[in-house]
C-alpha cells in the first residue's frame, strides 16, 4: 500500500488538534488576565462581581485548563456557551454583522471550543496522560 501526502497529513491530525487547543487557549487566557490583572496593559478592568469580571475569571481559569488539556471537554463546552452568550449579549445588539460589531473573535472562539468539546483534547494533554497512566 502506498502512502499519499494527504494520508501523511491526516496522520498528524491528533497533534494539530492539540496545537489548535493550545494556541486558542493561550490567546483566550490573555483576555482573562487582561480583565483581571490589566495584563497585557489595558484601561478595562471590570469589578470581579460583574458579568465582565466573571467572564474574565472563566477566560483565565478555563483558558489555563484548556491550555494544559485538563477537563478539556467540559471546559470547552462551558467556554463555547460563554462565547455564544457574549456574542448575543454584548456584540449583536450593536449590529448583527460580526465585522461591524467586533464579535468575530467571540464567534470563532465559540465554534473552536465547540469543536474541541466534540473532538477532545488531541494527542498532547493532561487528560490523555491521566487516561494512559
From TrEMBL:
Keywords carried by this UniProt record: Cell membrane, Membrane, Transmembrane, Transmembrane helix
InterPro entries the record matches: DoxX, DoxX-like_oxidoreductase
Subcellular location per the Swiss-Prot or TrEMBL entry: Cell membrane
Transmembrane segments: 48-68, 75-94, 106-126
Keyword Cell membrane: yes
GO cellular component terms given for this protein: plasma membrane
Main location: membrane
Highest taxon of source: Bacteria
Topological relation to the membrane, as annotated: Multi-pass membrane protein
Family as reported in the entry's similarity comment: Belongs to the DoxX family.
Protein name per UniProt: Putative membrane protein
